[in-house]
Amino acid sequence: MNSISSKLTHLRYLDLSNNWFEVLPNSITSLKNLQTLKLVGCRSLDELPKDTRELINLRHLENDRCLHLSHMPCGIGELTILQSLPLFVGNVGNGRLRELKGLNNLTGELQIEGLENVGVVESGKQIWEENKTFSP
Question: Alpha-carbon distance 78 to 41, whole Å?
Answer without folding.
Answer: 25
